[in-house]
């Protein structure tokens, strides 16, 4: 399934400019630091901008693309703006602009949105008693007064203390607002067919969606899921979601047919347990090898969403080569329902993907994006069809193995 027909990226992270025509299965190969992960992140940003910058696993923008130590790295060094454009299957177009704002400087079209957001930060009040360090003395005094409410004098004292807390909260909110106004920021602005959909502001220790369209604009629902070595383990949640879609038995059946020692998986006492052949006791998933756990997680992800986008960053990490064929089959089998974007350093995994695509008659829908670093730090890009990639596999080996 081809949801994204073309991707255009300009000045995003280390990518100065790139255009990529997409297929159902898109495999991105090349040495380190050539922009493979950045391509996945750009897709995540653009698609989730239609849904408050969250995906189907409730991952948020700070977990995917925002470096807590330097948010400005989202824009190519020396530039002030970057853009991501996705041309979709139904002639819709998502345009994402990332705009750097210096201290006390705003682009005119952004200032009103941010000022309106800053003027209504009252929602923060509920968070201050715990995370903003309000006076412990005030808190203790409130507790003592609350225990001794026996007279009008005590009630009056409580009212005064509550008023003091409220004033402190208002003061803190005003202080935060002023600091945000004065700070360096990034604005991420999303448009669908030229209609403004959302706007997110990112500053130190801050990222918030400051605008979400309430107009009757037809928003496209494109579910998206991502696997990255930088994200935590969510296999338990994936198991539950897959079970609810009634696809779990099919995935487990495929694993059982390919892994001789594997019998079944279930949840016992809120823990995933694995049944192995010739073993009477189930084992906790945590006791299994990293390769098996990785295969299980990605096998759960591949069929989880329908008419959506699946992003796999280096799925071969920690995985035994013997499992590559199983995962490749899951990806190719589910490519008629979803579109896959995969980064990899593994020649073996790439060859399995091409082999399974050819065997299942979908090799025409495979695209390979090969990234190569040239002199002057220039990143060269070459697009192969699946058929051409099989013919030129020896050339691709150079980038994957370094010879």
Detailed description of the structure:
- With 403 residues, the protein is α+β, with helices and mostly antiparallel strands.
- The protein has a domain at 118-181.
- The protein contains 13 helices and 16 strands.
- The protein has helices spanning 36-48, 61-64, 108-118, 128-131, 136-147, 152-182, 235-244, 248-258, 290-301, 324-333, 347-359, 386-391, 393-401, and strands at 4-12, 15-21, 25-29, 81-88, 93-101, 185-192, 195-203, 206-212, 224-227, 262-268, 271-276, 283-284, 309-313, 339-344, 366-373, 379-385.
- It has a seven-stranded antiparallel beta sheet with strand order 2-1-4-5-6-7-8, with helices on both faces. Strands 9-13-14-3-15-16 form a six-stranded mixed beta sheet, with helices on both faces. A three-stranded antiparallel beta sheet has the order 10-11-12.
- Strand 15 (366-373) and strand 16 (379-385) form a beta hairpin.
- The two termini are 34 Å apart.
- 33% of the residues are buried.
List keywords for this structure.
seven-stranded antiparallel beta sheet; 13 helices; six-stranded mixed beta sheet; 403 residues; globular
Shape: globular
Number of helical elements: 13
Whole-angstrom Rg: 25 Å
Approximate strand percentage = 25-35%
Secondary-structure element string: EEEHHEEHHHHEEEEHHEEEHEHEHEEHH
Question: Helix coverage percent of residues?
Answer: 25-40%
Quote the average pLDDT. Answer: 83
Total strand segments:
16
């Amino acid at each position: 399934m081809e949801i994204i027909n073309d991707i255009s990226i300009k000045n995003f992270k280390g990518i100065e400019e790139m255009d990529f025509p997409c297929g159902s299965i898109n495999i991105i190969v090349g040495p380190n630091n050539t922009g493979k992960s950045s391509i996945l992140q750009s897709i995540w940003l653009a698609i989730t901008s239609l849904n408050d910058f969250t995906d189907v696993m409730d991952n948020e923008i700070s977990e995917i693309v925002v470096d807590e130590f330097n948010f400005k790295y989202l824009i190519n060094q020396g530039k002030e703006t970057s853009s991501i454009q996705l041309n979709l299957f139904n002639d819709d177009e998502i345009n994402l602009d990332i705009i750097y704002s210096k201290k006390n400087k705003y682009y005119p079209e952004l200032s009103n949105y941010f000022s309106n957001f800053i003027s209504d930060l009252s929602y923060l009040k509920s968070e201050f008693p715990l995370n903003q360090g309000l006076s412990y003395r005030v808190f203790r005094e409130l507790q003592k007064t609350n225990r001794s409410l026996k007279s009008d004098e005590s009630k009056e004292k409580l009212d005064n203390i509550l008023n003091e807390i409220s004033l402190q909260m208002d003061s803190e909110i005003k202080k935060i607002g002023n600091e945000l106004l004065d700070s360096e920021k990034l604005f991420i602005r999303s448009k669908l067919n030229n209609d403004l959909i959302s706007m997110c502001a990112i500053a130190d220790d801050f990222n918030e969606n400051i605008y979400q369209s309430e107009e009757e604009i037809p928003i496209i629902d494109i579910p998206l899921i991502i696997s990255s070595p930088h994200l935590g383990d969510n296999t338990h949640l994936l198991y539950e979601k897959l079970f609810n879609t009634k696809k779990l038995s099919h995935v487990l059946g495929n694993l059982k047919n390919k892994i001789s020692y594997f019998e079944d998986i279930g949840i016992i006492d809120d823990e995933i347990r694995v049944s192995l052949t010739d073993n009477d006791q189930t084992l906790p998933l945590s006791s299994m090898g990293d390769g098996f756990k990785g295969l299980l997680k990605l096998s759960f992800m591949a069929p989880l969403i329908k008419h959506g986008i699946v992003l796999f960053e280096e799925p071969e990490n920690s995985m035994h080569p013997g499992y590559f064929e199983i995962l490749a089959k899951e990806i190719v089998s589910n490519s008629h329902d979803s579109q896959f974007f995969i980064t990899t350093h593994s020649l073996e995994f790439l060859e399995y993907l091409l082999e399974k695509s050819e065997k299942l008659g979908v090799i025409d829908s495979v695209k390979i994006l090969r990234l190569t670093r040239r002199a002057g730090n220039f990143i060269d890009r070459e697009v192969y069809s699946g058929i051409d990639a099989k013919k030129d596999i020896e050339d691709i080996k150079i980038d994957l193995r370094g010879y």
